[in-house]
Amino acid sequence: MRKTKNLKSKIIKKKASVLSFCPYIPKPYPLFFITPISPDSQPKLSLILRQQLPLFNFKSPKAQNTSISKMTKEVVGEGGSFTAKDYHDPPPAPLIDAAELGQWSFYRALIAEFIATLLFLYITVLTVIGYKSQVDPNKPGVVDPCGGVGILGIAWAFGGMIFVLVYCTAGISGGHINPAVTFGLFLARKVSLIRAVMYMVAQCLGAICGVGLVKAFQKSYYTRYGGGANSLNDGYSTGTGLGAEIIGTFVLVYTVFSATDPKRNARDSHIPVLAPLPIGFAVFMVHLATIPITGTGINPARSFGAAVIFNEEKPWDDHVCSKANI
User: Fold this and answer.
1) Taking Cα atoms as reference points, which of 10, 4, 70 lies closest to residue 34?
2) What are all long-range contacts of 112-115, with beta carbons under 8 Å and residues at least 24 apart?
3) Topologically, how does it sit relative to the membrane (predicted)?
4) pLDDT at 52 over 50
5) Neighbours of 257 (CB within 10 A)
């Protein structure tokens, strides 16, 4: 009992760092601890909920080397009770960080954004081309066995590819794959101006190359079915299309910020792993709602790349709707 008192008294006088306490234990799981009110008092058995529990790093080599240390809190003992200080957001990214230009990780992130956007446009534009039954009007007797994927198939393609690509690139570049997301993170001071501009350039170049591959491999279908370019559908005004793009882009960026909230990540360590899922699902839902209006932009790189390669007058005339994404 005396050893317990001495140990608890030492803990009360120290600052501790919260690292991790088995994230797989459910939040309401009760944990019992013997906590003395003062060094001279009798130990008391207390019921503490997991979310109220301060966690301690006793400076083990393994704990010191973990990246979880970035999510630390200071816990100070006062009068026998532990109180955790409010979580502090990471410091804002510098507006201009010239040091990034000399780091390999920066260029690796640019390559990741370029490849991810290229793959995103390649798969999704191919899916858009397959929206309708691919029957040659000059051959009325030929039947397409696939029959077209429909709006639901297009929405699944866009949402599924975002889920996969964000999961693959989140640890390299942050998994933006969208200038609207990059611009939002820049306004929130999550990325520097240099990184934001270079990301947008890489994303637009990747989109152009991705759509270019589709045209090279499926030129006849590509031209016949509009090249996957965004345009305002008949029966909708420019204001309606503009509003649909603004709201859809807001839903996506809002979901990105919520899924990557550092406060939530610090509390629930499984959140970063699951972040691509709600982001992809948000893209899926927005496409279901806005494909009949504008074909769904919500990604300036996607709209820009398709318009550049298709290079017809109507997509460029209606491109103002896609500019609402930015």
Assistant:
1) 4
2) 112/169, 112/172, 112/173, 113/169, 113/173, 113/176, 113/177, 113/199, 113/202, 113/203, 113/206, 114/202, 114/203, 114/205, 114/206, 114/209, 115/206
3) Multi-pass membrane protein
4) no
5) 14
Confirm if 17 and 262 have CB atoms less than 8 A apart: no
The CA radius of gyration of the chain, in Å to the nearest whole number, is 26
Over range 34-56, report the average pLDDT.
Answer: 48
Q: CA-to-CA distance for 322 and 326, rounded, in angstroms?
A: 8
**Using an 8 Å Cβ cutoff, are 215 and 227 in contact?**
yes
With residue 35 as reference, give the H or E element that holds it. strand 30-36
| Closest of 297, 258, 262 to residue 278, by C-alpha | 258
For residue 88, what are the contacts with CB-CB under 8 A and spacing of at least 6? none
The tokens describing 38, both together, are 């003062």
How far, in Å, CA of 167 to CA of 200, rounded? 19
CA distances from 49 to 7, 17, 33, 56, 202 (A): 22, 18, 11, 16, 47
Assign domain 98-323 to its CATH superfamily: Glycerol uptake facilitator protein. (1.20.1080.10)
For the entire predicted model, the pTM comes to 0.68
Amino acid at residue number 2: R
Domain boundaries, the chain: 2-84, 98-323
φ, ψ for residue 93, nearest 5 deg: -70, 145
